[in-house]
Design a protein that fits this description.
seven-stranded parallel barrel; 26 helices
């Protein structure tokens, strides 16, 4: 039997890399622990609408919403349509005014005079003010959005503007932040979340105008830009940044509906970097999805979101349908209070959104981790095809320098991604390789009792999980900086981490066993076995099996990442929700329901001497869990402690499922024997 040697020098370098990784992971954990304040935000317009629908005094409702847990109200730029509905201005088309004049309905002498002197044009739009401050802001905003030439003051006493624009479109255009609304929100004890949009051909005066209005508001917590561009993009972002810093504002990054990075707003991420990463991730339940969620489900969604994805600004939409036996206001107040209580019960505090300190790991520790990852790669090569020590160390030195040098220089983002990807692939494979070699060294005599299979399954699974966790620590450390916490940068190669370990474990298995026979004679190398497999006669049942395997592979790969087209069954969603409620970190199904039980069955297949191809298949399936476990740590936005607990929870649940799987197979075998004997006994 061919022996494979584990080079102790390489193993020692992996261990040293682990120490460096644990040092960074601990620092990262402390940074994550110091950012647990969540800002609870509603839209000011939603509060106004609730008051109108229920006929409630707005002041009283504002106090009740504040008491329920809302800390901040988002104030959008106003529009002529909104101002019309609130009665702050009246906007009419010239055609409407001319019709009123022609039908005798225009009785005001001043307006009749404007028509008769030809100053009212059918194609123009006319804005009539009531409040001088609101009217002045509307005039200023229209002049900026259109041009001063297109906005004319017809009558200063009656506050009448003539605007050359399309009526149907101009009433919906964003104008500017309404000072009166922001002052009112602040006076009620809320933080203001300002939501300005960018200007077409933005000018310096446009940017300064936005911050002039904010300057008179004491409690502005953050800016959450509206639209596809940050204010000032493309040429005046530096001016916007200067004003953001002067007012000590947080920049809000709105999470993409696919829960991967952000809703794209040009110029925002570079501005957040230049703002010393004083930024917070924002989540809002999609508008078309919230009505489908029961309130308890929505509350649980918020808790999990803030725990797992570093969300620190919860933008809560109101529910438009009242719960049975409650008013619409009571329904929404209970919803907000339940979210607040759920967050507090899970260790969060409620207030102005917390932000991360600009943490970056020590470059020398990163270089040591890179060297450890290289050592793991060289070790793997020696376990596939042993070669001389001088070549092992030569390869180690060469690759170590290539990887470590850019990191020591303080650059090397590509190297960090490469080290993370390599670690996510190679460590699950090394863990399974160690287990395969352990099995090869065993002497199997007689029929092992079921309790022995379970005992060896538990012990073996614990060890390979620990070995795989080394890779998880490498990934968590090498990508552990503030950019990844905020998901400005993400781990690249998720799908590869699911597929590559299975292929590499296949190579390892073929170097240890002849796949199509159980006896050890006629030992073949990997290539000979591949040739034999390719020459194997193909039957219809073989094609069916390959089709099923291909389908399983499609589901397996398609379900990874955030852009999958493979749907998740409702029963699985309900199971996930249940696990999220009863466990600190919900384990992954591919670990505790697939990979870990397969490991127990692989132990059973070994001791019961099932066909080698069955044992190989179970080993490959077991590798899925190890790859998934390490890939969990690649979600850097998730606190590292939660990723660690998720892996442990998956192992514990997997042990339970594995024991059930072994017992179930044993019962099936027993029943097949019993049922197979019955015809003979009847004869």
């Amino acid at each position: 039997m061919k022996q494979f040697t584990y080079n102790r020098i390489l193993v020692a370098l992996i261990a040293i890399g682990l120490v460096a990784a644990l040092s960074i992971v601990w620092q990262r954990h402390k940074v994550e622990e110091n950012n647990t304040t969540v800002e609870m935000v509603m839209e000011y317009e939603d509060v106004l609408e609730l008051a109108q629908l229920e006929g409630a005094p707005i002041d009283a409702l504002m106090q009740r919403i504040k008491d329920a847990g809302i800390t901040s109200l988002a104030v959008y730029e106003t529009t002529l349509e909104k101002l019309n509905k609130s009665g702050k201005v009246t906007t009419l088309s010239g055609a409407q005014l001319l019709q009123q004049y022609q039908t005798g309905m225009l009785s005001d002498i001043a307006w009749r005079n404007l028509v008769e002197t030809g100053r009212i044009k059918a194609e123009d739009v006319y804005v009539i003010g009531r409040d001088p401050q609101v009217f002045a802001e509307v005039k200023e905003d229209l002049s900026k959005r259109l041009s001063r030439e297109r906005v004319t003051l017809l009558d200063s006493q009656k506050q009448i503007l003539a605007v050359k624009a399309n009526y149907e479109k101009v009433i919906k255009w964003n104008l500017g932040l309404p000072t009166d609304e922001m002052r009112y929100v602040a006076s009620q004890g809320f933080w203001v979340v300002a939501r300005p949009s960018n200007y077409s051909k933005v000018q310096e005066s446009d940017v300064l105008g936005v911050f002039d209005r904010l300057s008179g508001i004491d409690k502005v917590s953050s800016i959450m830009f509206a639209g596809d561009e940050a204010l000032g993009y493309p040429d005046l972002l530096s001016l916007t940044l200067k004003k953001v810093k002067e007012k000590q504002l947080t920049l809000d990054l709105i999470e993409h509906p696919l829960q991967l990075q952000f809703f794209k707003q040009e110029g925002l991420v570079p501005m957040a970097v230049a703002n010393d990463y004083k930024a917070a991730r924002v989540y809002v339940i999609p508008k078309d999805e919230q009505p489908k969620l029961k309130q308890a489900e929505a509350v649980q969604r918020w808790i999990v979101t803030d725990q797992e994805r570093n969300i620190r600004v919860n933008l809560l939409r109101k529910y438009d349908k009242a719960e049975p036996g409650k008013t619409l206001i009571e329904t929404n107040l209970e919803y907000v209070a339940d979210v607040r209580d759920g967050l507090i019960n899970n260790g969060f505090t409620i207030g102005r959104a917390g932000t991360y300190q600009p943490y970056f790991p020590n470059k020398f520790l990163l270089a040591i981790i890179a060297l450890g990852a290289v050592a793991a790669g060289v070790l793997f090569l020696t376990l596939v095809r042993p070669f001389a020590l001088k070549y092992q160390y030569g390869l180690l030195l060469l690759l170590g320098l290539i990887f470590a040098f850019p990191l020591v220089k303080g650059s090397g983002d590509v190297v960090r991604q490469a080290v993370a990807l390599f670690s996510a692939i190679i460590f699950p494979v090394l863990a399974m390789t160690w287990q395969i070699d352990r099995w090869r060294g065993m002497t199997i005599q007689g029929r092992k009792p079921l309790i022995g299979i379970i005992r060896d399954g538990i012990g073996g699974l614990i060890i390979i999980v620990i070995l795989s966790m080394i890779g998880g620590m490498y990934v968590a450390a090498v990508l552990g900086d503030v950019r990844f916490f905020l998901e400005m940068e993400i781990f690249r190669g998720v799908k590869l981490t699911f597929v590559a370990p299975l292929l590499l474990v296949t190579v390892v298995y073929l170097t240890r066993y002849n796949l199509l026979v159980t006896e050890q004679e006629n030992r073949k190398d990997v290539w000979q076995q591949v040739v034999k497999l390719l020459n194997y006669p193909v039957q219809i049942k073989t094609l069916v099996i390959f089709a099923l395997v291909a389908l399983a592979g499609w589901v397996f790969v398609g379900r990874s990442g955030h852009t999958a087209g493979v749907p998740v069954p409702d029963i699985e969603l309900k199971m996930r929700a249940f696990l999220e409620r009863v466990m600190f970190a919900r384990p992954r199904e591919k670990e505790f329901m697939i990979g870990h039980p397969a490991f127990f069955l692989a132990v059973m297949a070994l001791y019961r001497q099932w066909p080698r191809v069955v044992h190989y298949t179970l080993v490959v399936v077991a590798t899925i869990a190890q790859g998934s476990l390490v890939e969990t740590f690649a979600h850097i936005r998730t606190p590292v402690f939660m990723s660690f607990v998720r892996g442990i929870d998956g192992m514990v649940a997997g042990i339970g499922m594995g024991i059930l799987a072994v017992i179930g197979v044993q019962l099936l075998c027993y029943l097949s024997v019993v049922l197979g004997r019955r015809p003979t006994e009847n004869e």
